[in-house]
Write a structure and sequence with these properties.
Elements lengths: L14 H7 L12 H24 L7 E9 L5 E3 L4 E10 L7 E2 L5 E3 L3 E4 L14 H6 L4 H4 L2 E8 L7 H19 L19 H4 L2 H11 L9
Antiparallel strand pairs: 1-7, 2-6, 3-4, 3-7, 5-6
Helix pairs in contact: 2-5, 5-7
Length: 228
């Protein structure tokens, strides 16, 4: 009995999604066992295109990380940049000095976005809130350095199986370019999926400037580096 292939747990999208969105089908590439061989090929190309995406993404993986723990020095900002995309913050701990023990911070003291950990708006211990001028009020806002010297954050991040549509679209563009490259090979109809293992090595044929720009747009933190 032949078992139909399935994408692995780290796949950015399912085999069904990929099959429906690519520009090719089994009959355009194979002369026998078309659907099975095509699905095997798509599973392989999903993995290879994901590898390309991760490589171009940067230092941080876009794949799922659960209960990741980062320790940071507090800065004179109310917004602390985190590795995108943050999906949940489960605990924030602080130290008043290097010699102190970690203390759990009340969740009412902070908020988070996919890019940042944000100290809840409150006046600095060194300034009084002034209600008339928003610029003055912001200048008097507490920063992380006002409340601690070090921060330890436990959080979840990454796309997992819930990648946004623009990421899925980029992956489909990569897979389509791989398929187009294979289709141009004269021997593709007689080849087996194992023969396609080196597709991703044709990096320059697969990754265009437009695809690089699309990945850069997804990974950019936008205003996340701004002080609050």
């Amino acid at each position: 009995m032949v078992t139909a292939p399935t994408a692995d747990a780290d796949a950015l999208q399912s085999l069904d999604e990929i099959r429906e969105r690519v520009d090719y089908d089994g009959e355009s590439l194979f002369s026998d066992n078309e659907q099975l061989r095509f699905d095997e090929l798509l599973v392989r190309l999903e993995r290879e295109s994901r590898g390309i995406f991760v490589t171009l993404w940067g230092d941080e993986t876009p794949l799922t990380e659960t209960d990741r723990v980062d320790e940071k020095r507090a800065t004179y900002d109310a917004a602390m940049l985190m590795p995108y995309p943050v999906t949940d913050v489960t605990e924030v701990e602080t130290k008043q000095s290097q010699a102190d023990d970690w203390e759990t911070l009340d969740p009412r003291w902070y908020d988070w976005t996919p890019h940042r950990l944000i100290l809840a708006e409150r006046p600095s211990n060194l300034a009084h809130r002034r209600h008339g001028n928003p610029l003055t009020r912001t200048a008097g806002r507490a920063t992380w350095r006002d409340i601690c010297t070090n921060i330890r954050v436990t959080y979840d991040r990454g796309f997992g199986d819930d990648a946004p549509n623009d990421v899925k679209s980029i992956q489909i563009a990569l897979i389509n370019r791989m398929l187009r490259h294979l289709r141009q090979e004269q021997t593709v109809a007689a080849a087996s999926p194992e023969d396609f293992a080196g597709v991703a090595s044709e990096f320059d044929d697969v990754v265009t400037d437009a695809i690089r720009e699309r990945i850069a747009d997804v990974t950019s933190p936008g205003g996340a580096t701004m002080s609050v």
